[in-house]
Amino acid sequence: MSTADLSTLTSSSQIFTSNYTLPQIRAIHKSLHVEIDEKASRLRTQVGNSYRDLLGTADTIVQMRRDNDAVQGVLGRMGGRCGRDVVGSKVSGLSRFERHTKEQSGGDVGVVARAKLLEACGLLVGRVLKGSGAGAQDLSKGDRVVLASKVLVLSRLLVKSLGEEDGLDTDVEHAFEAAKKTLGGLRRRLLRHIEMLLERAGDTVKQQDVLKALCAYSLATSSGARDVVRHFLNVRGEAMAVAFEVEENERQRSTNDVLKSLALYTKTLLDVQALVPFKLSEALSDLKKSPLLADVTLKKLEGLRLDVYERWCGDEIQFFTPFIRHDDLDGPQAREMLFSWAKKGSEVLVGGLKKTMERITEFKAITELRTSVLQLWIRDGGKARGFDPSDMLDELRSAINGHMLNVVDVKVNKLHLIGSEVAATLESWQDGVTDQTVNLWDVRSFDIDLINGTDHFLQELVARLHGRNDAVSKAVNGFQSWRHIIDEVSEVVEQLKRQRWDNDIDEIEDEETIEERQQLLSKDDPRTLHEKLDSALVKAFADLDAKLTSLWRSKADSQNSGKVAMYLLRILRDVRQGLPTLEAVKGFGLEVVPSLHKQLAVTVSARPLETFAEKALTQKTVVGRPLWEGKPELPTQPSPRTFRFLRDVSKEMGDAGMDLWSAVAVGVIKRYLRGQLCGRWRVALERHLTKETNGDASVEKVDASNDDATADEGKDEGKDKDETGSLDESKQKEEASDKKHSDDEKVEEDSEEKPNEKETAPEAQSQSDDGLSQQRRDLLIQWLFDISLLQRYLESPADGEKDEFQSLEDEIYAHTGLEGAEARQRILKSSQDYHKKTSLLFGLLS
Fold first, then answer.
1. DSSP code per residue over 696-710
2. Strand ranges (DSSP E) for 743-795?
3. H/E run at residue 435
4. What global pTM score does this model have?
5. What 8-state DSSP symbol labels residue 616?
6. How does pLDDT run across 649-693, given as a tens digit for each residue?
7. Alpha-carbon distance 185 to 190, whole Å?
8. Counted domains in the chain
9. Same domain (yes/no): 126, 236
10. Is 296 in the same domain as 406?
11. Most CB contacts within 10 A, which of 43, 82, 335, 631?
12. What does the alpha-carbon distance between residue 805 and residue 325 come to, in Å, rounded to a whole number?
């Protein structure tokens, strides 16, 4: 269905016809409303714009009326002041003023005018230098000093002119004398401003201002081009030296002083080559082209009133032209002066750089200074013609690298403080205080306030786990602080390798120059520093190793050598954990560690070995004999003293500190225990075999009875003492009388029983010997089981070493009387099973 064209419809009768259906009529109605809305919106927009234009036009008309009123007022006032009567009164007043002046000064108006002009010059010099006396003129710093120097030259001319006059009036003479006194101060002030302008370097001072300052100096001192350049170089050289001069009570040297001095050095080279000889000669020549009073800037100074006072100045002042030699310096002379100054300036710069770096010990600050200085020289140093920038670059590199190498050496050598701390601790060692350790499970001594986080709690927990008491912590914390510093040095050296030294400001260098500089600054210098760091670390660790070794040797035979060995082992462990990745220092402390482990093993095992030798190896009976099993009956568990020995060793190891028992340390104590146990056990075995060979049955019997009695007495000692103390005297008397009667009867019966005793004595002796032999065999069998179990805990020696335990086991087995290998295998199997069951009880020995 197509929509009707609204432009063809002129009346409603054309719509309500049979040509259009109802939906089409509705569409036409809707289109008409949309078009009406659009035209209404467009009309409102046009009316609004026209209204704003009308308002703007009205404002403009109002403003034009105000301006017209102001102009009419100004013209009216001007017309009133230019009337015939007003001008006539001014002319008559001026004539009266001139007559009055001639009457008071004898008619010499020119002298008074020059005196007034001289006084005005003295006031304007200071104002011009401050920037407030130039009026409406927008002058730069260079223009101001040139203008001030012209005013100063005018002052000199006026002083000379007035000085030639005779019979000056009193007021004029006073003004003249005062002006003469201030003239010298004004000159010094002007020269100081010129020097301040020349001393500055950077983006704030333009080269044109420097040129104008040199022209001002030439005007103020009547110097030629040669003297001006010489003064310029002297000022810049003194400024470089002053940048490094620091009084005792003043500020300290900073890196900004080095950058300022280097900027002065490079800016001087560039300024001299840019200004000398052509630009400076032209500028000095321009000062002589016109008379001084014809200068436009002087005429614009309202304070001088040259429009009034100029006609009262003589011809010498009005037509004075500065006389300055502008052609007394040629190119070769300027180059010679510049090269001479550059040589001395480089010495001052490098010397100041070294003095500034003397107080800088932070490696990062030194590298930042290195980056700033070298980048500044790379950017500006290559712009100077006739100078090889690589020479100065090498001098700066040499100074900075020398200090960096010295700082590296100093920082690395601080490792000797660890040895000093250890030596001081050993000198002031107090048993029970210095070696006191804090129990890991002592919760009361923990600082459990976690308000500031868990870092402190975790650090203390790790310190206890590693056995770090106060003495160990002092040395370890010192080493960690030193290690942190060395890590920072290594990081900075790596950063130097990644630096780029391209001249991004002026891309005027060829690729070969850039690559050569990159090789020097990012490869050669870092490699030199890295080699120095490695060699210093190797030497420092070697010295510390020798120091700790000598300290241990001096304490190895002392009474507390075991505690000292524990202290040194903990320090060596923590130091070795922080060793640098250098092949030469991997062996740090390893030479003395075996001796420390040996002393640690001796100290820890001394009490358990002594107890075992006194209690276990002197027993003659087997306490657990009724618990034996099998056929033949064999032990299935160790003797109580053997179990107690393992428990004592494990406890002593734990008390010494679990952190001490590395795999190597555990191996050392196991080897030591094997050797000590074998030696003591072999002595005990020889003692038993000797008694058996001598057939000392009575001694064995007594020893056995003594062993049983000792065991019983150990349990009932207190009870026996109470019973013995309760016997009374009457009972003792009765026993004495009974004993007397029994003795009499025994004498009578001896003769009768003698033949029977002779018959029964051999049988009793034989039974006693059999019992003792069996008891000895049982003891050896129990020893065989104990040795087999201890072998499980103390491990076997390495290949190629003699197994003393095995030989002892074979020797004892030979005297046990066991037949066949089955019994021995049963003992071996039983000891292995028992080891599996109880190995966790003795964790450090497992």
1. -HHHHHHHHHHHHHH
2. none
3. none
4. 0.68
5. I
6. 999 998 888 888 888 999 999 999 999 999 999 999 888 888 766
7. 9
8. 4
9. yes
10. no
11. 335
12. 111
